[in-house]
Structure formats: C-alpha cells, structure tokens
Write a structure and sequence with these properties.
Structural class of chain C: alpha/beta
Distance between the termini of chain C: 57 Å
CATH architecture of the largest domain in chain C: 3-Layer(aba) Sandwich
Largest interface: A-C, 32 and 33 residues
Radius of gyration of chain C: 25 Å
CATH topology of the largest domain in chain C: D-Maltodextrin-Binding Protein, domain 2
Strand content of chain A: under 5%
Order of helices and strands of chain C: HHHEHEHEHEEEHHEHEHEHEEEHH
Bound molecules: adenosine-5'-diphosphate, magnesium ion
Radius of gyration of chain A: 27 Å
Shape of chain A: flat
Oligomer: heterotrimer
Number of helices of chain C: 13
Structural class of chain A: mainly alpha
Largest sheet of chain A: none
Number of strands of chain A: 0
Chains: A mainly alpha (about 280), B alpha/beta (about 240), C alpha/beta (about 325)
Number of helices of chain A: 11
CATH class of the largest domain in chain A: Mainly Alpha
Number of strands of chain C: 12
Distance between the termini of chain A: 42 Å
Helix content of chain C: 40-55%
Strand order of the largest sheet of chain C: 8-7-9-6-10
Strand content of chain C: 5-15%
Largest sheet of chain C: 5 strands, mixed
CATH class of the largest domain in chain C: Alpha Beta
Shape of chain C: elongated
C-alpha cells in the first residue's frame, strides 16, 4: 500500500501486471519454439545424410557444380515464365470478370450468356490444364493457321487464359454472391440501374473481398506457366529438363524449384496476410 | 388529389400473402406512420411503394399516375421516392460524401463539382459536416443512419419512406435520428414511416395506420387511434407496446 | 509345350531361390552357440546337417545351371540367370518393332538378344522392363541390368551413369515437311539456319543442332518424338533434328507429307552421336557386356544386324 508503482520482480518497469505476465509467457513460448525447431532441423541434418543412398541423392539432386553451371541459364529461361505470366494475367482478370458477369445476368433475353458462362466454367474447371494446353496448343494451329498465328506461345497462353479465367470467374462470382442483397436494394432505391449497381456498388466490394483468393490463383498460374513447355516454349522447367538430360543430373530441377519458391513464397505469404486482414475486418 | 394513393394493393411471396388489398392515401406534406407487429407487412408495403418489389394486383398512384403498371421502367420513379432502411445499407467502400454523391452523379448526371456545395450544405444541416470523408465503419450507428437519410435526400425526392430506421440503434442514438425526422417534418416533406416509436408517432404523425394480418385494420389521427382504438386487436397491440 | 517347359523352369528357379535364401540366412545369422550344447540342441544340430547338405546340393545345382553359359555375367545380374533389359515406353521403330522387344525384331531388340547370347543367356532368360529417361538416371536401385533406348554417350552423362561401348554410330538427319521444301528449304546449311527448329529435349539433338546448324531462332523443345511431330504437323516448327533411323521412320510413317531433307554423316562430326547401353554407375556387368559388344563388332554380327534392320539408312543425301 506504500508504493503504488512498485513492479514485480523480473519485469521491465512501467508495465502493468498483466503485461509483465504476458511478456514472461511470450518469452517462455519463444524459447520452447526455438528449441523444438532446432531439434527437428538438427535431426534432419544429421539423420538424412546417414541414409545409405544419401551420397547418390546428393550427387544427383544437390550437386553444387551442376547447380553453379546451370543456374544462370535457368534464371535466363525464367524470364520467359515471367513474360508469359505478364501477358496472361491481365487477360485472365478481364475474361474472368466478364464470365462472372455473364453468370449474374438476370434478363431473360440474355439467358444464353448465363448458360454460356455456366458451361464455360464447368468445362474449363473440369479439365486438367495440361490437357487443354495440348488440345489447344497443337489442335488449333493444326487447322492450318499461317504463322505467326499458329505460335505455341499464342495458343498455349490462350489455354492457360481459358482455364484460369474459369477459376477467376468462379472466385469473382462467389465474391458477388457474398455481397448482401440489401446493398443492391439500397442502390436500386436510389435509382441506379442494374448495371450501375453492379459497377459502382457490388463489384468494388466483391473484388476486394476475393482479392486474396484471386491472388492465390495467380500464384498457381505462375507455376502452371511451366506446363507450356510441353508444346515447345523453352521456359525454366524445360531448360532444367534439357540440362538434366545433357548432364544426367536432377540438380537443375532443384535450381528451378529454388527460382519458383523465391517468387511464390513471398507472394503466398502476402496473400495469407491479406486473407487474415480481411478475416479480421469482417469479424 | 393525394400525392400518393394505394388502391387494393395485393402482394404475396409464394403462398404467403403479405398485402391483402391495401388502400392508403397520403397528401402532400403529410406524415403517415405504419405501426403493427413484426411480420405484419410494413417493410414489404414500403418496398412495394418504392417499386423494389413488384405488386401482384391493385394500383399505386403517384400524382395520379399509375406507377405500378407492369412493364414500366422503375428507375426514374425510384429516383423520385427516397427510402431509408433499418440497417442503414451504406456502401462500405465509399466515404460518406461518396455515398451521398453516387446517385446524383450516375443517375442525374451531375458533376462532382456542382454537387460539392449542396452536399456540404446537407451534411452541415444534419450536423455531419466533419464526417464527410469518413468511411461508414468509422461512424456511429446514429451517424450512419443520418448519412443514409442525407443520401436519400440528395436525390431531392418527392416522398420519403422510412423503414424502422431507429430499430437498429442504441437507445442513446435514437434521439439524434428522430430529430432529423422532426426537421424534415417542419420543412414539409411528405413521409411514410414504419415505426415502433409510438411516442414519436403520436407527437408528429398526421395519420397512423395499424397493420394486422397483412391489411390495414384501423387508421386515423394519432389521438383517436392511440387513446381510443376501435378494434380489439389494435387495443391489444398497443397494450403490448406502450 | 514350350509354355509348360518355361513354367516348370520357373518353378525350379523358385525353389532354388528359396533354398539359397535359407542357406544365406544360416550363414549370416548362426543360431547362438550355447544352443548347441543343450539337450534340444541335438535336434537342431541334426537339422543343421540336413540343411547344410541341402545347401551343398543347391550350390552344386546352381553351378550346374550356370555351367550352361559359363559366363562373366554370373552373379552380376539383378536376378540370377536372368538378364533384365530396359527399353523406352513406348519403344520406337526401327529400334524395336511394334513396341514388342521380346520378338527380337528391330535393331535394338536384335542387338539385345545378340548380347544376351554372347553373355550366355538364352532368349527366354531375357526379361524386358520399361523406363523413362528420368527413371534410368535417378539415384537408387535400378530394376534393370542395362537400359537401351538410343542413349547418346557423352562425357557429361558419364559422370553420373556408365555407358557401354557404342553399339551404333548414327548420322544426324533433318526431318521436315513437303510444305517447307516447297517453300524453298534446301539441303544447305544456309537454308537450314533460317528455319524454325524443334527437337526432343531429352536427347543430345539440341547441342548437335546448335553445333552443326546454329539456327537463327531459338529452337522449340518437346518431351518426346510424338510432340515434335505434332508441332511439325501444326506447322509450328519447320524442321527437327533426329538420329537418321528415327528421322527415316518419322518421315515415312508418322509425319504426313514428311520429308527427309538430308543427313550429316557421323564421320564428319568431331563427336558423332554414338549410342551406348546405360548402366547404373559402377555396375560390374559393364565390362562383361563390353567384351560381348567388342566380340559382336569384330565378328561382323553387329553390322549384319544393322544391315537387316537399318538398311534404309543408306543412300540419304548428305547436307553440304
Ligand atoms: N423477400 C421475401 N421473400 C419471402 N417472404 C418475405 C420476403 N420479405 C418479407 N417476406 C415475408 O413477408 C411477411 C411480412 O414481412 P415484413 O414486410 O418484413 O414485415 P414487417 O416489416 O412488418 O415486420 C413476413 O412473413 C416475411 O416473412
Ligand atoms: Mg420490417
């Protein structure tokens, strides 16, 4: 009762009792987490090399010499992935939005659009990406288009665009559905048309709500660009395959994986961060 | 001629008949209160007047013109009738000022510049001059509801509909919203209110309608309806809420 | 008749294998010695005598079987008395006919059986398995003794796997289509440089292409022959580089309007495309197989097989 500001032993001055308690708790759990992580890492580092085949695996997959020799070439080839991604992504976003809007039309005269949207998303979400790439990438040019209109870059990209637009459309549609109908009613009551309501009231909210989900789709797209290699373009996965074949060594694939991860891990973290932020805002 | 007249308006959702031949007439500058138990059809009636719900039968006349004619474009009519909802329904991605300007800009085609002064005046009039650039989630319930009223007023409607606009508010915030209605009343706005604020209705309404089982069971000036109701069911309802 | 024979033989080798396992385990994990001194030990000792004599018998019989070939491959194969050879999935003409290596038809199939014979394996002691290129080079135990699917011998690959001596030296050839020829492509280096090239990414055709032709545009690469020809059919590439026999087959059978524009003869190349059998690194069977290949080369048997299965490969115009 004599000293109001006295603090418990072991805690920084100026903290409330609760803050001091939480600080102690935090320190303890951090120590625990660090300790157990270290134990696991040590176990992996020590035990895996004890496996009888480790030397062979190390030579085939983690070969420093091969890595050094092929990594620059892989980075170079990765520019192709980036380029393909960059021209596909905006088209996917636009087409996905259009298809999502098709699926939301209410007017009976436009019913065919609605039907088309539904069939489109069902078909392209139902097919493996690689299948679409083969069918469109080899099939359409096989009809006898002249160059450059038969380029595998064009048709392979189109295949990616068609498939990913279907996913994006579904995500956006779920975003549209998530907007409470009272928002539409409020807009309509002010005299806005259906189109204006969609454009100014529903879509801005819907797209913001599904931004993290869409971001995850685009991360997946970045990886699936590699599938274009099956119809000719030499991007990082194919380049790694060429090195693998010439050197009879899988290390170039590990190199390619490193490049992908360097890009996708930060992007995934960021998408998760957005997703969490969203969840906190909604609750 | 009445500003707004409802003639035998019928509305049902599937098998659920929500309006069974409603007749109602509202004169210019008049304030009509709809009272009744939850589920008696007050909201639906307001939504029908504003053409958010199509009616099945009967007619709705605005200035003597049938606005309920099937096939009529509802947009220009909705722009003439303002409505404010129980749950505010502000657009969360826009600031208060943007919420208010959206319809005048997109529907009436006014520019942001020409709107700035009158919108500022509206916010000032309802004591929200400092809140124009705030987003809805940065405003209290009472403030949000007042912004919603300003949003409807910005279209310069001929009639205002209010659907239990104080029901979602904390008690200490109800007053500031009712004050806005008082102010509109003195300015001569034609208004229809669905409300549970019996004291308010008694104080200000020109006419009170008691809705029961999807019809207007009893209507009259507040003194008569509140102190001397004709119907047993009205009496029972009032006993429960007063 | 022959089916029954094979069946009974399989039964024999099964019992044989079992006895061997028993002997081996007795050898590896002898029962604790104090057991032998107990009363019960006597029966176990008797049992041991029986088993040992059985083991002796089994050993003799296996010697008797092995004496059939008396070969350097003894004990070096994956499975006793069986030579397991891997090929591609599918295996392509003219290396293997009809994707059926068991028939011994096609150049590689025929060479495989010739080698097997040299090593002392009868035809029905040859077992075929299928692998992709990647399975062939992945670390870990292999399910084949050697792998035979036109693997080009290169020093880089030899750091990871072992190759036999070459069993075929191939010219490289240019596959294209009639449309491209009609559009003016000719069998000259200048003309070839301007074409859009494709190649199988898993082969050494790519470095060959860069070395020999050095095309102006980056070549497009594919996972297998089928995709290369599909791209050619779709007019996405003008030409592709293959080993000559493969190119011949593709131009004649697979690619509609396919044309074999010409060849780069192996003699003219600094490091020609030579095919070798692929072994897991350090496989001791390789020396034995090399002896066999040398013998086949010297006896003219290899040339004879080539004349039988790759005779069209002669007479293709040479690119200057
Ligand atoms: N959109 C709708 N679809 C189906 N039924 C509805 C709908 N809106 C209201 N109803 C029904 O209409 C009746 C009247 O509801 P409402 O007008 O909201 O009454 P109040 O506002 O007086 O509480 C209720 O039974 C309600 O369930
Ligand atoms: Mg209601």
């Amino acid at each position: 009762m004599t000293d109001q500001t006295s603090v418990p032993r072991g805690s920084a001055p100026g903290l409330t009792r609760r803050q001091a308690y939480e600080q102690r708790l935090r320190r303890r759990s951090n120590t625990l987490a660090a300790g157990s992580t270290l134990a696991v890492v040590l176990a992996v580092v020590v035990l895996v090399p004890l496996a009888p085949g480790w030397d062979a695996v190390k030579r085939s997959f983690f070969n420093g010499q091969v890595f050094a020799k092929t990594f620059p070439g892989l980075l170079d080839a990765f520019l192709m992935n980036v380029a393909i991604f960059l021209w596909c992504a905006p088209i996917i976003a636009i087409l996905g939005l259009v298809i999502a809007l098709f699926r939301d039309v209410r007017s009976p005269a436009l019913y065919p659009l609605r039907l088309f949207g539904a069939i489109y998303t069902d078909v392209f979400r139902g097919l493996p990406v690689i299948l679409v790439i083969y069918l469109i990438g080899f099939g359409v040019p096989g009809l006898g288009l002249p160059r450059p209109w038969n380029s595998p870059y064009v048709w392979g990209s189109l295949a990616l665009i068609l498939v990913y637009a279907a996913y994006v459309a579904e995500v956006i549609r779920s975003g549209i559905d998530s907007i409470h109908h009272s928002q539409r009613a409020a807009a309509a009551s002010l005299g806005l048309s259906d189109g204006e309501t969609m454009r100014y009231v529903v879509l801005p909210q819907a797209i913001r709500n599904v931004a993290p989900a869409n971001m995850n789709l685009f991360i997946a797209l970045q990886k699936d660009v590699a599938l274009l290699s099956f119809i000719g373009p030499v991007e990082v996965f194919r380049q790694a395959g060429v090195y693998k074949s010439l050197l009879a060594n899988f290390t170039p694939y590990v190199g390619a994986a490193v490049i992908f991860l360097a890009l996708t891990i930060p992007a995934t973290r960021y998408a998760d961060y957005l997703m969490n932020k969203q969840r906190r805002r909604q609750s | 001629m009445a500003k707004l007249a409802l003639q035998s308006v019928t509305k049902s959702f599937g098998d659920n008949i929500v309006c069974r031949g409603i007749d109602l007439s509202v004169d210019e500058g008049e304030m009509v209160c709809l009272i009744g138990a939850s589920g008696s059809g007050k909201s639906t009636l307001l939504r029908c007047i504003n053409l958010l719900e199509p009616i099945d039968d009967g007619r709705i006349l605005l200035d003597g013109v049938d606005i309920s004619e099937p096939g009529l474009d509802p947009q220009p009519i909705r722009a003439r009738i303002g409505i404010v909802f129980q749950s505010f329904n502000l657009f969360p991605h826009m600031t208060a000022a943007e919420n208010v300007m959206l319809a005048p800009r997109r529907v009436l085609g006014k520019s942001r510049e020409t709107l700035e002064a009158p919108v500022k005046a509206l916010f000032d009039r309802f004591d929200l001059g400092q809140r124009m650039q705030h987003y809805p989630d940065q405003l209290s319930g009472g403030q949000q509801q007042r912004v919603a009223i300003i949003r409807a007023l910005a279209m310069q409607p001929e009639i205002m509909l209010f659907d239990e606009i104080t029901s979602a508010l904390d008690p200490e915030l109800v007053g500031e919203v009712l004050d806005v209605l008082r102010q509109l009343r003195t300015e001569g706005m034609t208004m229809i209110l669905a409300t549970h604020e019996m004291a308010f209705a008694r104080e200000l309404a020109d006419k009170v309608c008691f809705l029961d089982a999807s019809r207007i069971l009893e209507e009259g000036p507040p003194e008569t309806l509140f102190s001397n109701p004709r119907e047993d069911r009205t009496r029972a309802f009032l006993k429960r809420v007063l | 008749m022959s089916l029954r024979l094979r069946k009974s033989r399989a039964g024999l080798s099964l019992t044989h294998g079992f006895v061997q396992m028993l002997c081996w385990s007795l050898d590896k994990f002898p029962p604790p010695s104090n057991l032998w001194t107990t009363q019960q030990g006597r029966t176990i000792r008797q049992m041991k005598t029986v088993i040992t004599s059985a083991c002796l018998l089994a050993a003799t019989s296996s010697v008797a079987l092995a004496a059939g070939h008396g070969s350097c491959a003894d004990g070096l194969t994956l499975e006793e008395n069986v030579l397991t050879i891997a090929t591609g999935n599918p295996a392509y003409y003219p290396w293997v006919l009809n994707d059926a290596p068991e028939s011994g038809e096609g150049y590689e199939a025929a060479v495989a059986y010739a080698i097997a014979e040299e090593l002392g394996f009868e035809a029905d002691a040859v077992k075929w398995v299928r692998t992709s290129f990647d399975e062939a080079i992945q670390p870990g135990a292999k399910d084949f003794d050697f792998n035979m699917q036109q693997y080009s011998i290169t020093p880089e690959r030899e750091q990871m796997v072992d190759f036999s001596l070459p069993y075929y030296t191939s010219a490289m050839a240019v596959l294209t289509t009639k449309g491209v020829v009609d559009a003016g492509a000719t069998a000259t280096l200048d003309s070839l440089k301007g074409l859009v090239w494709g190649a199988d990414a898993n082969t050494t055709a790519l470095p060959m292409l860069t070395e020999i032709v050095a095309p102006e545009k980056d070549p497009l690469l594919y996972g297998d022959n089928t995709d290369v020809t599909a791209a050619m059919q779709a007019n996405q590439i003008d030409a592709a580089l293959f080993d000559l026999p493969t190119a011949l087959y593709l131009s004649a059978v697979v690619v509609e309007g396919g044309v074999l524009l010409g060849q780069f003869p192996a003699e003219r190349s600094e490091n020609p495309d030579q095919f070798g059998l692929l072994f897991e690194e350090g496989n001791p069977l390789r020396d034995c197989v090399n002896t066999a290949i040398t013998a086949l080369t010297e006896s003219g048997k290899l040339a004879e097989i080539e004349a039988t299965w790759l005779q069209e490969a002669t007479g293709v115009p040479v690119i200057e």
